[in-house]
Structures are given as C-alpha cells and as structure tokens.
Amino acid sequence: MTNIVIIGAQWGDEGKGKIVDLMSEKADVVVRFQGGNNAGHTLVVNGITYKLSLLPSGIVRGKLSVVGNGVVVDPWALREEIGRICALGTEVTPDVLKISDQATLILPLHRELDQMSEAAAGKGKIGTTGRGIGPAYQDKVARRAIRVGDLAEKETLSGKVDNLLLFHNALRKGWGQPEIKKEDVMAQLEEISGFILPFAVPAWKILSQQLKQGKKLLFEGAQATMLDNDFGTYPFVTSSNTIAGQAAVGSGVGMKEIDKVIGVVKAYTTRVGSGPFPTELFDADADRIREVGHEFGTVTGRPRRCGWFDAVLVRQAIVVNGVENLAVMKLDVLDQFDEIKVCVGYEYKGRKLDYYPMQMNAQAEVKPIYETLPGWKTSTYGVRDYEKLPENAKKYIERLETLLEVKIGMISTSPEREDTVIRIDPYEK
Ligand code: IMP
Predict the structure, then answer these.
(1) Which of 223, 240, 296 to mutate for ligand 1's pocket (most ligand atoms within 8 Å of CB)?
(2) DSSP letter string over 319-356?
(3) Residue 421: which of 311, 330, 323 has the closest Cα?
C-alpha cells in the first residue's frame, strides 16, 4: 500500500496534472486537499485536452475523486466545470465524486470581494485569480464561513448568513459598496444546494474506509510551495497551505498514512501574478521559453513570467515538503538553447545566501548566482528512455540532482502522458 502526495515545488503550473494522471493509473482514489478553482490542471488523455480547476485529476480516468475539507468550493463554478467535462464524455456522478461536507463554500460575495480588494490595492495587488479564494479562506479562519454540509441544516443556515453579512456589509460600507441583501444570499444557496448536496459526504470517513480496504490514495496538490501561505513569497502567495503536510490536514487522513512525497518542477521556472522571482528573464530567452512552453495561464490566460531554474528555491521546497523524488517537466522546452543557466545561490548586500530570506525587500533584491551548462541543441520531444536523451540533457538532469540532493525519478518530454522517462516508479520503489 502506498499513499503518495504530489506537490508543486516552484510557483505552480509545473505540470502536476500530468503526473497525477500518470500515477492515477495505479492509485485508487485521488484527493484534493487545498485551494479551489484557482488551480488549472491540464491533462491530455487520448488526444483530448481536459482543463480541470476544482475536480481531482483522477476524475478523467473514473477514479474515486475526493474534494477534501481543506478545499474551498465554488459550487457554481463546479457545476460549470462538471458540465464541460461531461461534454467531453467523462461521467461525474456522486458515485465517483465525493465532496467533504466540511469544505468551505466560495460565494459570489467572495469573488466580488477578491476583485474589489485587488482593484483597491493598485500597484500592490497580488495578482490573484479573482476567484474569491482568499476571502473564502479568511471567512473560514474567522469562523463565519458557510460550509458545504451547512446547506443541509436549514434551521441554522439563516443565522449563519446573518453572521456572515454582519461582517461583509460593514466592510462593503467602508468601501462605499452597496449592501448585500440576506434574501439574495439565501436564494443563491437555495438554488445551488440541490446540485451540491448529493456530492456532500464526511470525506474523512470515506477515506478511512478506503484505507481499511487497502486502497491507494493519491493526494493532488494545487498551486505550489512558493505560493504557500507560510513558506511562499508572502504576501504574494495564495491563502492556503500548499505543502505536503496539508494533505493530512485538508483531507482528514492521519499523517502516518502518507508514505511518500513527490515534488514536481519545470526544467525552468515560471510564475503568474505579482511578487518576487529572482531568476526572471526579460529578454529573448524569456520569450522563447514562453512561446515554446506555451506559458499562458490555464485559468486566466495571462502570459506567465519565465526564468531559469532556481535550485535554491527548489532545495528549500524539498525540505519543507519532505520530497523524496522529483519529476522534472517540460525538458523539451530547453532543447534549442545554446546555454542553460541554473541559480545555485544568491547575493544580497555583498553576502552570499544559500536560502531565500523571508523579508519582502530581500526577496525582491537578491541577485541569482548562476552556473552555466551547455545546451543539447537536439530535440528531446517525446523521449521515453533515459539513455536516449542527449548527453548534455543527462548532464543537466544529473547536475540538478547533485545541487538538490534528491533523485529525479521522472522526466516529462511532451504533454502526452506516455512521453515520460520513468527512472523511479513511485509505486515500485
Ligand atoms: P489566489 O490563489 O487566486 O488568491 O491568487 C494568489 C496568487 O496565487 C496569485 O499570484 C496567483 O496567480 C497564484 N495562483 C493561484 N493559483 C494558481 C495556480 O494554480 N497556478 C499558478 N499560480 C496560481
């Protein structure tokens, strides 16, 4: 029995969806444990492209898919997503999709507040996805959120909405926004509860039963370590903990059940939204990475910021997640570069640093110290066998292993799931 957590070790969009999809063949249950529909996981299965936001990637393969208590759920967005996925021929029924009744709901007022506070922040904005993720988590922590299962208890719902609006209307008043009427929120909840409640279950209990039956759980992280609310580039982060430890908290599975953590990185680095990014490029190399790597956001369509691989950040991510092996994605995007750089340390105020400091100015001002490796100038697109990679590509991979002190178990060379070099199968080792 192997229960595995997959997390992003950079700023998201590493290609976790492909790795989860690849591994879901051997897993029985796929579990989301944080985030919401800010995530964008692209899967290509039998030539069909699936863009998932809230649904666990296992859904496409008919695996039991669980949305844990740590997730924030926008039921309207979910209804729309299920509609899209069903139109591609995938069945999404309460038999395969289970949503924790303890998960927090994202309401239209959260989406509006997310967009309002971003607009008010002007230059200091975080560059959120505008999906209401932050405001929903704020309400959760402040103990005034409406949770999925609350929709089933009509006698307490009205009081919960009163409590929620007491806060939100005071805030809106301060911002010169019109008040939200209770009857409107009640009508929204009434309208959506028939859709969401059939999926609502005590997910921790379902997962416990699965474990007792010896089923393999695959935990699908969203966003990534550098967007983690504690360990990321705060305040330019998301509002949840994205690291592997959250898999237990956000699903109700005891931490001793988790056997392994796999980190996913790109062969370079990207970021969407604002915030520091030491190895960011602003030249033709950035344009080339963006074009070859199709680096535009799945959720928002925004062009992603692109730069070289940052071994300092990834080393940090390996530590805080307890990563055992890495998957390196999109190696083929670097195929035509003469030289490839890797950040191996930082310089800050005349000092060398071997970690990323937490202060905002320091994070923005550290200068990367680069090591330059020769490119391979040969296509690696679709290569599935490590020995068939060009020598310099192997040297690149092996240099990363030395710098990061972990083994690179998988290397992806195209969006297709079969186009993956598997050096260490997480289910076999
Ligand atoms: P939020 O999660 O919408 O609040 O956005 C906070 C930050 O996280 C912004 O910089 C977003 O661009 C980033 N972010 C959120 N979800 C993702 C994701 O799935 N991939 C990459 N970046 C993300």
Answers:
(1) 223
(2) HHHT--EEEEE-GGGGTT-SEEEEEEEEEETTEEESS-
(3) 330
> Which of 32, 53, 72, 129 has the most ligand 1 atoms within 8 A of CB, as the residue to mutate?
129
CB of 126 within 6 A of ligand 1: the answer is yes
Q: Write down the pLDDT at residue 46.
A: 80
Structural tokens at position 359:
């202060």
Report the predicted TM-score, pTM, of the whole model to 2 decimal places: 0.96
Query: Which residue CA neighbors atom 10 of ligand 1 most closely?
Result: 273
| Those residues with Cβ within 8 angstroms of residue 409's Cβ, 6 or more apart along the chain or in another chain | 262, 325, 326, 327, 422, 423, 424, 425, 426, 429
Residue 283: name the closest of 305, 250, 310 by CA.
Answer: 305
Q: How far is the CA of 379 from the centre of ligand 1 (A)?
A: 32
pLDDT score of 219: 98
Query: What amino acid positions are annotated as catalytic residues?
Result: 13, 41
Mean pLDDT of the region 229-257: 97
38 Cβ inside 6 Å of ligand 1: yes
Structure tokens at 157: 């719902």
64-67 and 48-52 strand pairing: unpaired
Residue given tokens 């029995």 in the structure block? 1
Task: Determine the atom of ligand 1 nearest the C-alpha atom of 114.
Answer: 4
Report the separation in Å between the CA atom of 347 and the middle of ligand 1, taken as the mean of its atom positions. 28
- Give the span between the Cα atoms of 370 and 345, in whole angstroms: 7
- DSSP 8-state code for residue 273: S
Higher pLDDT, 49 or 370: 370
Q: What is the pLDDT of residue 43?
A: 84
Residue nearest to atom 21 of ligand 1 (CA): 12
Q: Which H/E stretch holds residue 258?
A: none
- With a 6 A CB cut-off, is 227 part of the ligand 1 pocket? yes
> Mean pLDDT score of the chain, rounded to an integer?
96
Task: Check pocket membership of 273 for ligand 1, CB cut-off 6 A.
Answer: yes
CA 157 from centroid of its chain's CA atoms:
31
* Strand spans (E) along 210-338: 217-220, 260-266, 269-271, 305-307, 309-310, 325-329
Locate all alpha helices (DSSP H) within 8-153, ordered by sequence: 16-24, 75-87, 108-121, 133-141
